[in-house]
Amino acid sequence: MTNPQKIQSFPEPVFTSTPTAKPHDSKLLKRTEIADNLDQLLEMLPPSIGEKLAQHPSRDIVIEVVMDLGRLPEVRFPHGAEYLAEMPITREDLKYSINRVGSFSGDNRAGIERTLHRISAMRNRSGDIIGLTCRVGRAVYGTIGMIRDLVETGQSILLLGRPGVGKTTVLREIARVLADELHKRVVIIDTSNEIAGDGDIPHPAIGRARRMQVARPELQHQVMIEAVENHTPQVIVIDEIGTELEALAARTIAERGVQLVGTAHGNQIENLIKNPTLADLIGGIQAVTLGDDEARRRGSQKTVLERKAPPTFEIAVEMQERQRWVVHPNVSDTVDLLLRGQEPSPQIRTQSDSGEVEISQKPALQPLPGRQGLSVAPPAQPGGWRASGRMRPVPSGKPTVVNAEFEQMLDQAWQQPDLVEDKVRTPGPNGEDWPVYVYPYGVGRSQLEQVVELLNLPVVLTKDMNSADIVLALRSQIKNHSKLRQIAKARQLPIHAVKSSTIPQITKALRRALGMDDFNSSEALDLRLFSHQGSDDELEALEEARLAVEQIVIPKGQPVELLPRSPKVRKMQHELVEHYRLQSDSFGEEPNRRLRIYPA
């Protein structure tokens, strides 16, 4: 016979907000009730243990009961642990309890039908059970008052926190509220039968939400996809996302427009950033190489970490304590700030014993207690006399300290021409003003200088955008930096884009900017630009490709196959063919792999 549920009621909570918090609807908080079904758990324990625990004055706050073979039984409370008997646990005691619970799944977990209790087993090397951890499961109604406004937004929510902080309890209550009060189609992926209890009939604590059980823990990601494809849910609830396949399945579900509510292994968002398996939940992390100017502008190294994609979960909740949660309402902004070495400013939501909720904004410069942060170097700050303001202009009179070598260097420095004000111009062949002042953005300066020197181009590189005539930038940098386009438009500077910072691409862009873009002229091509080391073998292979293009492919419109070359040399030939705006492919097997050039 099943005993009735034990209900413990608490006073009606009161909601308040600080000036930094937005006012919320009065229905944010409901009456808090706890259903623990503790009597069913006592019945599965050996009589000597169950009877003593039933008479314990703190039985209402029991967390779990531990029974290990040959050791004294132990009961754990929030304030500590106690022994329940003076006799060690025997195999008969373990067998008594095992016979009164359901079957153990692949993750060594079982339950008691129609309850939320979790029985976890410890096995020896032979597979025999030698220990049990009997965790008390409680359905706490009204526990999501602190984040109910976030649940109603329809955005995906990720719960983080240490074991035992109450993630699964909150997850269960969210599923009930979404199904019963917001009338949504909710499907729970219950891998360990911990959310909706053991047995085929789910616990009433999940309300009208439906529950899908998982045969084996490693199949959780398949059941997640199956739920979306077969049962048309509006909300998917997942507990303990812990593998890369599960993270990928969560992203797939989110991209189909389904709201996700789940938990993951980790206490804070920083833990997910450092975890390559679960990093996709917050957008994924990738290493990006910045150009010289961009790295200088950011004050960082050239290789930095950036978010790869939009996060699977838009909202993250760090459950630091049962009554103190840190809410990140915009996960993408939080991750971007952390990757740049800055401290985010999330919401801190707390609830007092009387049920009063307070929402405050965490100051951006004050770290939360216990937050370790990322091991990302802070942006470099300027230093020295110039930054401190102690640098003074050189006096017009004769210096008091005489140093001949220093004075000579100083005179030479002051006598250098100022490129911003004194541009030396000469007319070009078509009457244009030469040289052309080029402002490079994201393009390698050494490659630029090499092209200018080898081709003897009338080009001067400048670091001042005010003195530039054109901007030469990587195509990817132009797409990602609207500020560059705005500045160039305001100064009426044309932007010439290059696909990559390679010598052939730079050569093509500079010649196009100078009006020298003649690809059919052999005089306009210097094979040294495409050679890496300038060896005879490289120049011979490039000359072969040039002759094939200019004498056969372009005039006759016929494809040409070149002689077999090494992969390194074939890459140079590909770049040369691309210079002529033609297509080429490599075919054949090594060492006879060769290039085939196609007409336009």
Automatic annotation (TrEMBL):
Mind telling me which PANTHER family this protein's record contains? KINASE-RELATED, P-LOOP CONTAINING NUCLEOSIDE TRIPHOSPHATE HYDROLASES SUPERFAMILY PROTEIN
One matching Pfam family is PTPase
Q: What is this protein called?
A: AAA family ATPase
On the tree of life, the source organism's domain of life is Bacteria
Q: Which SMART domains would you find in this protein's record?
A: AAA, R3H
Q: Does the keyword Oxidoreductase apply?
A: no
Annotated R3H domain ranges read 536-600
* Region described as Disordered: spans on this chain: 1-25, 364-395
Annotated CDD domains? AAA, R3H_AAA
